[in-house]
Structures are given as structure tokens and as C-alpha cells.
Amino acid sequence: MALRALKFASLTAAASGIYLYGNKFLDPNDFGVVRVGRAIATTAVITYDYLTSLRSVPYGSEEYEFLKSQIKELFMSFEDTPLGAASLAQVHKAVLQDGRTVAVKIQHPKVQAQSSKDILLMEVLLLVVKQIFPDFEFMWLVEEAKKNLPLELDFLNEGRNAEKVAHMLKNFDFLRVPRIYWELSTRRVLLMEFMEGGQVNDRAYMERNGINVNEISRNLGKLYSEMIFVNGFVHCDPHPGNVLVKKCPASGKAHIILLDHGLYQVLSESFRMDYCRLWQALIKADMKRVQKYSQRLGAGDLYPLFACMLTARSWESVNRGIDQSPVSASEDMEIRSNAAAYLPQITQLLNSVPRQMLLLLKTNDLLRGIESALHTRASASSFLNMSRCCIRAVSTYQRSKSHSLYRRAQISLTEALSLWQINLYELFLWLKGSQLGNWVIALLRRMQHFTY
Predict the structure, then answer these.
(1) How far apart are CA 419 and CA 319, in angstroms?
(2) Residues 195, 257: contact at Cβ < 8 Å?
(3) pLDDT tens-digit profile of 355-411?
(4) What is the CB-side half-sphere exposure of residue 223 using CA atoms within 13 A?
């Protein structure tokens, strides 16, 4: 098996190109400047490079047929057309000789060599733009690309991330992470358990399959609150293609399937605690603490703008309490118009906050996009789950720093009481929105009437 794995690894660079060329499955994103630079740099030179390299193995040639025969030694079947293709890789469905159905993630040819050129091109273009527009402060894009791209190009690192997050969140029985088949995986090829489902933003799919949209939104919030506030190990690419949902035929439960584990952010303890306390202040509408912890996270005097960016709410809503009312159409329009008006200040903020914050902002935006598509944005339950995670995280941190048994017991008691209050409030909200709750309220009013 190990020998076959080595053989397979040596074939995949050519094979992935063959399938792209032979099936004419050409997506401009496959050849563009990888991810971060896609919106900045032209793709013409890269496209030409890819097309000329693919022509070195013509479709239908002897070499093409030889490579396909080698692949057949490993697989009972291998679907030529990719399930999906992106800037770094494409995924094929296949069946191993022992009958296991797998997803085969294959890195595009020349991506490793091309990536350094892409980053250099991005850096040059950004420097040119900065010379023309001195207020343009996006050089952090290059820094982030240099740090994150090598990690994303190492599929073994992606496999380790998948196993780590699966173990970390094993208590969530609704979460599914594909199992990694290490014996056939390399830095450029990843074989994993094949999982399928509807995209997490596909409300129509969920309704057709009897999946509770609110439950999915609530569980997704639980996952990310746990990752961000409690563990500090965050899957930072939750776009709908990477988050699937499927109803289990046996149990009837809806599962969330988390894919593509190449991009994670590891949060430092100090950053995570400040971020926890900032969100606690935002939920409680405690403006003094919002200012304090925003400034500790690098926002300076722009803390009102920073709070609005984090919550995607107006400053008026932040002051009133972000859990008090859902986003209205007029507020959404106000936020969009202000984003353009405050672009220089937003640029300044992005350049001054810790680098850890950048991927979190991206993650927050992707999650909000999913909530908007499902019409579950800014629900009270999402803020309650965040509050629970923040309380647990801060209490755990405080206990770790305390050497007094009495103090640790005091922290644990405060934590238990705070969590109990949240549970009680959640029960109140449930009763308020249920028929039973309406009946109880009506009964209490009637009893009060008789008393008088």
C-alpha cells in the first residue's frame, strides 16, 4: 500500500492536469492568483502557464492512457469530472479496491512553484498602488498570504487539522468531519472519507429534506463559539461549499459536515480573553467595557467603528443592545453606505488590529452570510450560546491563574450561577414563543384578575 501511495503521489500532478484538460473543466479561479490576491492581480500570465503545461500530456495520448491505467490499480472507480475545483486543488469521488468510497483532493500542477510568484506579484502591485494612493494600507494582505499559503498547500497539515477539530468538538453529536486515510495521503494528495449533503445556505434543500433551519443555524453558532471563545482553534473558511448539512436516515438527526481544513487560526490566550470580554460587553451593551477591550485589541479611538464591524450593526443598535432587535432593511442599507464612506478608517483599523483578528473578521462575515440566507440572523439563541462560551472560557482562564482553592470554588460558583441565569432566560424565551407559554401567561392574568 505504501508503494502504491508513492506511485499515486507521483502521478497526481499530471493526472489532475489531465482531467482538467481532458474534460475541459476549466474555471478561471483555478488559474488565478491564489485566494488572497485574486481580486488584486491579473490571471493572464498564470492562465497561459497552466494551459501550456497541460498540453504536454495531450488527451488520448499513450502517456495519458498510461497514467489512467496506473490510477486504476489503486481505485475500483475514479470519477473524471471533479466534484469541485478551486484555486489550489480539485476533489474527485473514487472507490478504493476494498470498496471504500473516498474523496480524493488533488493539488493543481505547479501550484507549489507558482505560489511564490503569485505572492511576489501581489506585493509588487500593492506597492505600486500605495505609491499612487498613499492612504492605501493593505500590505498586511501579503503578510497573511506568506504565512497562510504554505500551510494550505500542505495537505498533511490539513489532515491533522481535521483530526484535531474532530477530537476537540467530539461532544457535538451533530458534527461530522471526514476521516483521513493517511496510508494514501501526501503533502499534495489527501484521501478522506466521502461525505455529501446540501450546502448550509440552501434553505430550500433543508425544507425538502425535513431539516430544521433554526436548529442548523443554532448548531453552527455553537460550533464556532466553541472554537473561537473556548478552544482558540478556528476553522476560518466556512463558506457554504465547505459546510454541508444532511439528515441521517437512521436517527433522523440533522448533521453538519465540516470540510476543507487547510485554513485555521490559532488564537493566543491573551487575545482570546480580550475577545471574549469584548463580546460579553457588546451583548450587555456595556459601552465602557466595549471601549476598553476594543482599544486593547488595537482599535484605538476608532472603537465605535470596530464594534460596528464586529457585529455588522449600526452604532445606535450597539448602544441599545445587539440582542434587542433584529437587523432591519434600513439599518442594513445604512451599514452598506457607511462602509464606503468610512473606507479609510476601516483600512486603518485592519492595519492596526492583531493579525489574528483578520481571519476572524472574515469568518464572522461568512457566518453572517449563511444566517442571512437562512433568515436566522441575529437570533437571541446565537447570543445566548456566545454568552455561555464566553463565561466558560473566562472562568477556566481565571481558575488557571488562581492558586487559592477558595477563589477557584468562588469562580466555579459564579460560573454556575451565570450559566443557570442564561438557561432560565432561554426557557423564558421558549415559553414566550410557544403555545404552552401563551396558555400559562393567559392563566396567570386570569388568576390576577380574580384576585382583584
Answers:
(1) 24
(2) yes
(3) 899 889 989 989 988 988 888 876 666 788 889 999 999 999 999 999 999 999 999
(4) 28
The pLDDT-based confidence of 174 (bands split at 50, 70, 90) is very high
Extract the C-alpha cell encoding 412: 466555579
Q: Long-range contacts: 125-132, Cβ < 8 Å, 24+?
A: 125/40, 125/41, 126/40
Q: What average pLDDT does this structure show over 68-73?
A: 68
**Which pTM was predicted?**
0.78
Whose cell is 479561479? That residue is: 29
Max CA pair span of the chain: 96
SS3 label, residue 238: coil
Cβ(391)–Cβ(414) under 8 Å? Answer: no
End-to-end CA distance of the chain: 84
What is the DSSP annotation of 384-395?
HHHHHHHHHHHH
Cα dihedral across residues 410, 415, 417, 418: positive or negative: positive
Chain segment 135-145, per-residue pLDDT in tens: 666 667 777 77
- CA dist 125 and 212 (Å) reads 47
Which residues are identified as catalytic?
Answer: 237
